[in-house]
UniProtKB/TrEMBL annotation:
It is an enzyme of class 2 (transferase). Pfam families: PCMT. Keywords: Cytoplasm, Methyltransferase, S-adenosyl-L-methionine, Transferase. This is Protein-L-isoaspartate O-methyltransferase. It comes from the Bacteria. It comes from Isoptericola hypogeus. Belongs to the methyltransferase superfamily. L-isoaspartyl/D-aspartyl protein methyltransferase family. Its main location: cytoplasm. Its EC number is 2.1.1.77. It is found in: Cytoplasm.
């Protein structure tokens, strides 16, 4: 993907996101039939009604998420594995990224794409049937959701660690969820975007 087509910004988070988008080439996470459009700032179909989100939207989500080095990150709706690899670039070798995808064959393809990205602290797996996300005892420092929910998904809010942040489209409104050190949750809206629907069953 050409750098001239990437959204840019200034400051630490913006610079890290811009660098990740420049290094993790979208072309490595697209079906062959979509490669000719890889440089364009638009969503591209990857099968099963799913898309690779447009780069400017991905950049906005990652900047809002504010992913620090060493963080543990859950990537819900990982699809082709592109966002999982971008998150892996942001957290670095001291971090951990788990992508989950409900379509088993997409998950297998995405997992292979992530492995080729050569960042072993990141992986993609099929979602467990009937489970949204991937619960774990200490929660996740960051949660990225790349599908639109009809309502704020409580199951994912519960998986957010103290001090954590989650970015999730709710009825296509980009929503930031922040959990403070005492467990209190704050929710704020940050613009309207278009996403495929989040399936919660």
């Amino acid at each position: 993907m050409s750098g001239s087509h990437l959204p840019t910004g200034s400051g630490g988070v913006d610079d890290a996101v811009t660098a990740a988008l420049q290094v993790v080439d979208r072309r490595g996470f697209l079906p062959r039939s979509r490669l000719r459009w890889a440089h364009e700032d638009r969503p591209l179909e990857i099968g099963h009604g799913q898309t690779s989100s447009q780069p400017s939207t991905v950049a906005a989500m990652l900047r809002l998420l504010r992913v620090p080095a060493g963080a543990s990150v859950l990537d819900v709706g990982a699809g082709s594995g592109w966002t999982t690899a971008l998150l892996a670039r942001l957290v670095g070798p001291s971090g951990e990224v788990l992508g989950v995808e409900r379509h088993a064959d997409l998950a297998a393809w995405g997992a292979a794409n992530v492995r080729r990205a050569a960042m072993p602290w990141a992986r993609e797996v099929p979602a467990v049937p009937g489970v949204l996300g991937a619960p774990r005892p200490d929660g996740w420092d960051r949660v990225l959701v790349s599908a639109a929910a009809e309502h704020l998904p409580d199951a994912l809010v519960d998986q957010l660690a103290a001090g954590g942040r989650m970015v999730v489209p709710v009825r296509h409104e980009m929503t930031l969820v922040e959990r403070d050190g005492d467990g209190a949750v704050r929710v704020s809206a940050h613009g309207t975007y278009s996403f495929v629907p989040l399936v919660e069953d």
